Amino acid sequence: MSVPPRKVLHIDMDAFYASVEQRDEPSLRGRPVVVAWRGARSVVCAASYEARVFGVRSAMPAVRAERLCPQAVFVPPDFARYKAVSRQVREIFARHTDLIEPLSLDEAYLDVTATKTGLPSATATAQAIRAAIREETELTASAGVAPNKFLAKIASDWNKPDGLFVVKPHQVEAFLAPLPVGRLPGVGKVMERKLADVGVATVADLRALGGEALEQRFGRWGRRLHELAYGLDDHPVEPERPTLQISSEDTFERDVPLERTGDEIRALAGKTWAGYRRELQRRPGRIARTVVLKLKTSDFRILTRSLTPPQPPASERELADIASALRLRVELPADTLYRLVGVGLSGFAEEGEALAQSDLFAAGFELDAGMDSFAAGEAGLED
Prior knowledge:
The protein is an alpha+beta fold. It has 14 helices and 13 strands. A hairpin with a 4-residue loop joins strand 10 and strand 11 (about 300-310). Helix 4 (about 80-95) runs antiparallel to helix 5 and helix 12 crosses helix 13 (about 315-325). The model is unreliable at about 355-380 (pLDDT under 50).
């Protein structure tokens, strides 16, 4: 007996932070709004659609945003207000299903294969949710409807802003075929270049290369790419996604040499440790085993260094000591200047599993100098 396909929604609030600001301050409506602190060290948290026309995007330096759009109105972020609106939106989701997987304050997956409301289709559910968001928050949201999460996420971006796009099961292969391979989850710029080297630019090209050739070249990831090219993905909507990393970061007022980052590392270790303790209260028994140091150079190069010691850090001081020591693994010239530093904890495992893993490292440390970056949670950036 075949199992019917899932019905998954991806709901994404439109320019969320900026839209909240425009809603609450009528004089901002229709104007290019940039949510960011002003100054040489600040980055853009969000930009209204009026600002995006000029090329302003989240995570870019605020000074660059100001050059691109001199008439932009800069508004300092108010995360308490954004979180309050996010809670409103999630209450709307919960009227329809308990299977809600939040990704950030402004987006979430919903499994609506079976709903509390008895609406006739996933499309009708998406329409009802968007209408309720508009009525109750005076904001707009875009939605994607599809048989799985990654397709729903692509679809929600299709008709932004304030749009709805549906990918039905029989449409999946035709929908994916012309898309750039970079639209597939896990295919970043490095993988795009590797695929371009073998003549692959679109999903259709990926299919033409064939599963066997992809697996020979890229191993298990090649097999996964072949599945994604045909829209195959069985990851469920997970209402209680476990925390993967807790981190804090900060930008210096002026670029500093590496040896002058020590005080900031210790201050950030304190913030990260406080977040870790809150996580332990929420999910007792989950231990973080790996310490991560993140640095951004004055020319915006990001590098991370991580260490999994034989015993997980047991105090704020231990976390700070390990993060500080990781600077010794940075092999850039001594005169390199840094604009940002961050401290994180990752490698979460259940306590018994963490202790078992510790035995594996009793004879030495595991070092990973190739991690890409922290999760974006602490940065407060919006896509």
